Amino acid sequence: MRGVALLGLCSLMLVTGLTGGAAAAAPVDGSPGERAKARKLSIDDITPRRGEKVGTGMPIMLRFTQKIRNKKAVEQALVVKSTKSTEGAWYWTTSSQGTSLAIFRPKTEWKPNQKVTVKANLKGVKAGGGVVGLKNGSMSFTVGDSHVVKISSKKHRAKAYRNGKLVRSWPVSLGSGGERKNGVDVLITTSGVHLVMAHSKLERMISPGKEKGDPGYYDEMIPWATRISGSGEYIHQNMSDPSCLGRRNCSHGCVRSPGGDAKWFMNWSYRGDKVIITGTTRKLDWNNGWGYFQIPWKKWVAGGALKQPVRT
To answer: Which PROSITE patterns does the record match to this protein (predicted)?
Structure first.
């Protein structure tokens, strides 16, 4: 099955303490008219959640309340510190709300079992277009063990590794293909570095773009579903032909798994764990959920306002 696509990149983000709130804006240089036009700049959403334990691939995503012109000034005000030094960099894009979205990603991954703190020193920052910083804020989260799952479309097998050691292996069935939209076979599972985005004990999955009675239509409740892309790819319990598992690809794009393995993976994994899928003819787009590791490191660094990596 394939789940309903996310409404936008930030739809999973939750509001935390790292927001501007309703405090008064900092003073702005210029005429009274310019000061009157000044808008408040704050962080509307941040992922991960405060205090959350995440995987070693977890990005830090800051969605702002405004579209920022002077991204350099804002990026200079953002500080990431970790108890184990890691090389990372910021990348700027636009959120589904049309505001600026800053994403911090480690070059390869966070070192496991450590604390990461994000600080936004936004007070007094002039971000352009009359947008000024509102207040400072900070939050912390922890990185757990290294969890990496490798899934081969050709071998029809998933292997889970904890801190580099194989801890579980199970048969799977990936997307069979057969339905093209805009030149893309949307029923083929995407290959690339996915990140775990969300967990659901019971997920409603509806065939996208179809109505009841159409060929291929489905509307089902699927157990033990772990989302790995924005377009609706999950690792979930197999609900159809069990003979497919470990033998051939017959899903609508998701990674079908035996019920016990799907449940184990959902309970074992953190948001931000890497799920590396190989062997399919469809590539994961960088902006399909959290596919940020699909962007080569040099290009990622170039996407930052300061265009340089930092040590945390």
So the answer is: LD_TPASE (PS52029)
